Amino acid sequence: MEAQTTISRAGREPYDPAYDPEHARSPGTGKDYAPTYWIGTAGPFPEDDGPITRDIDVDVAIIGSGYTGLSCAIHLAREHGIKATVIEANGVAWGCSTRNGGQAQISAGRLKRSQWIARWGVDVARKMHAEMAEGFDLFRSLIREPEIQCDPQDGGHLYIAHRDKFLPGLESEVRVLNDIFGYRARMVSRDELHRDFVRDAEARGAMHEPDGIGIHAAKLAFGYLTLARRLGARVHTSSPVLDCTTRDGVHYLRTPGGTVRARAVCIATAGYTSPDMNALTKRRLMPILSNSIVTRPLTAGEQETLNFRTRIPLTDTRTLRHYYRMLPDGRVQIGSRSAITGRDAANPKHLELLLAGLYRKFPVLRGIEIDYSWWGWVDVSHDMMPRIFQPDPKQTLFYALGYGGNGVMYSAQAGRRMAQMVAGKGGGLDLPIFTSPLPGHGLLTPFRRLGQWGMYRWYYLRDEIL
Questions:
Q1: 8 Å CB contact between 82 and 76
Q2: Does the structure show a pLDDT above 70 at 2?
Q3: Three-state helix/strand/coil letters over 326-356
Q4: pTM tops 0.70, yes or no
Q5: Which fold has domain 153-210+288-378?
């Protein structure tokens, strides 16, 4: 099912619902946006600098105009006096940044704090937590900027157990957060959840984290754009980078309208990273599809029946988790993982599975009209954690990738960290996400999607039946 409400922008190529970054050389040139709720309700689009029309020389080129790329441009200007040039294949924030669920949490990647400890030890895990906390403070400060009017809904995040067997894991994670990190997480009983937050029918209890903000995804991105351009950055749209090569210390970014010659390059293309763009990023991510729907506005009676008292981000304990919340205009948004290939993305069964998840949580909404339906690619790294990294010390090329669906908040800090590296001030960044490359699948790459198919079935058995 496609959205019932879409946008039309003169001069754009049609939106391609079957786009697949595993097989496409580039995301296209000037393609229309996915028909998301965010694009449909963002209001007037801010100006950009249009496509590249000739060969140009720049100091720093940033590939990708989503949250990460625009944050990098903002912080290069603010903290290092560098005016960057951002290059985008389609429209500003065309990929992940206008297709996500608009949930900012105090995390990045897919691993929990207890998993950080198991992988790196307590000392490194504490430093990682401090990095996330600093990132959340940065995010909060950015969304207070006058240019960024993104409808923030502050108040924390609820991690909701959808079955009794997941409660002990949440209780253990609360102890880890409080005892080791000094973080004020707490358990919320089913009765308290239903009384004070929302009457989620399948919820058995939840973990509450005090840091969590819901935002309007497109308004955040377009606010970043306005701020970056005010600070002197240039943002060129409809200019896909067809390849990125380096000769004699100069990077050559070939686009349809001209070649950009840059002293340094930052790659911030997330789940839309072409495998042919550069050898240093080839096959370093698992692009995974996520579906999202938004209902019509709920009536006062429906809201009362659901006791929807909260507007904060909600996530359940499924491995292929549902992320959901009440939007400011009274609609319910819910998303989860979807098809494995772009060719199968429009298959109605994926929408039906997502609707089934909505109805399990809120039976009163069975049959409710769906005003928006879309999907997008998520940049999952092979070890479930992001990287902000310079993969070859001999080349001034950097990337910030691999958020695994947790990039709304941390992308701001990741862009800032990448700007530090570009400016030669990243020497003190000693965490694993800054000092090691994105791992690859190597010889297993051709079979990755076959493995993904099998894992999805195992996750279903573990989460719903066993």
A1: yes
A2: no
A3: ECCCCCEEEEEECCCCHHHCCCHHHHHHHHH
A4: yes
A5: D-Amino Acid Oxidase; Chain A, domain 2 (3.30.9)
